[in-house]
Amino acid sequence: MSAAKNISxxxxxMDAPLFEYYPILLPDDVNLQRFAELNEMYTERFGLTRxxxxxxxxISLDGKxxxxxxxxxxxxxxxxxxxxxxxxxxxxxxxxxPYWKNIILYLAIQEHDEILMLNRLFMAELIAKTTKLKLHLxxxxxxxxxxxxxxxxxxxxxxxSCLLDKIAILKKPHKSTVPYKTIAIVPIGKR
Length: 191
Known about the structure:
By secondary structure, the chain is α+β, with helices and mostly antiparallel strands. The chain has helices at 3-11, 29-46, 70-82, 113-126, 145-152; strands at residues 18-27, 59-60, 64-67, 87-99, 102-110, 136-143, 161-173, 181-187. Strands 1, 2, 3, 4, 5, 6, 7 and 8 form an eight-stranded antiparallel β-sheet that branches.
């Protein structure tokens, strides 16, 4: 939303609607495809539903809640991404944390200082706050504890590492239950 439009809304006594923007780090194409194939295997082997799967493997960063301005957000993310390099990450063991009465299974990220630095650069550019991120790559969500044990005891041949070489920028209306929409995918580094 342009500044003029925002001022017009304010003059009418209306607040501009807020949107949530979140940059997420995406694995290289080979590993992105591998995680997609694993999703198919999870549904076959464990009988999981699409709602328990992660649509696109990623590592979440901090976001910004602001008036709608896709172009401004994309330009800021592109600026930092073009001045950065792809990040190589190593995954740890499958871990879990509680999610309602069930759990979320994820791969821990080892040695994540470069990701935290990139997050700080993004948030500085977006004039937003950083939080204490628990960096991870979610594998499954809302999984029953019994299934979690079965999952963790099976040989899934999960990736041990990947190269984070692009950023997807997600957007949705603030406090909305609608799914996030990808508004751009930006490469990391000069191309």
